[in-house]
Amino acid sequence: MRVGSRFLAVSMAIAALSPLAAIAEPAAPKRVVMIVNDGLWAPEYYEPRRIFDQAGFTVIVAGKYSGQVYPDRRNATYGPITVDTTFDKVDLAQFDAITFAGGNGAWTDYFPNEDAHKLVREAFRQKKVIGLLCASTGLLGIVDNLDGQGPGLASGRHVTGYYRVEGIMRTLGHVTFDPGEKGKPYVVTDGNLITGRDPESSTLFGETVTQKLLGLPDKAPVPVAPDPEVPPAPLVEIPPIPLLEIPPVPNTP
After folding, report:
1. Are 124 and 151 in contact (CB under 8 A)?
2. Would you say residue 63 has pLDDT above 50?
3. What is the bridge-based pairing of β-strands 85-86 and 58-63?
4. How far apart are CA 204 and CA 218, in angstroms?
């Protein structure tokens, strides 16, 4: 080896041991594909989207058809959502997580749609972070199980979801369903599976998915245990108060 080459090799070895060499390149932004439907409940898209954007994630929106989807008419203050791609063109290998918004469109755009089923199936197979919110949680009972004879993709997993699809999830999906505490946002995390109960849980849902992707403790509440039975307090007998005898006032002449 010539002197110049030997010097170069030694210099490279020293550089590799330098503290500067231990500084990792900035991690690439997490990539999330958000699945939407025509007739969705708007906060179930906009709230998680706001949180994902704040976290610096790259977000792609996918719908049944290209163009735009419109929120439920009761969400008149929200505008249409532009769709970046369609269900059949999503390559899940390019994403870290997939989320599904709920709403009335779940019954038309998700439940009978094989392309939507394929996305759920692939998310489980590739062990992606998968988040289902409100009505979209019904997919856990339907995918690969339209005849009700299959075990269910999430069989035995701990989940929550919209009350109108609870029966589908329990009967077809064979999940452990937890409705949570009424009147409070509720999200359940079971491994890579994150489920949110209702529109009021949209913010907590977005936060929980974000925490999972960043490897931080999630913010999903611990399942609410039933209150222990408290025996009734014994009755205390209060003795009657004796009546006071007031002497009559004598008549004065």
Report:
1. no
2. yes
3. parallel
4. 10
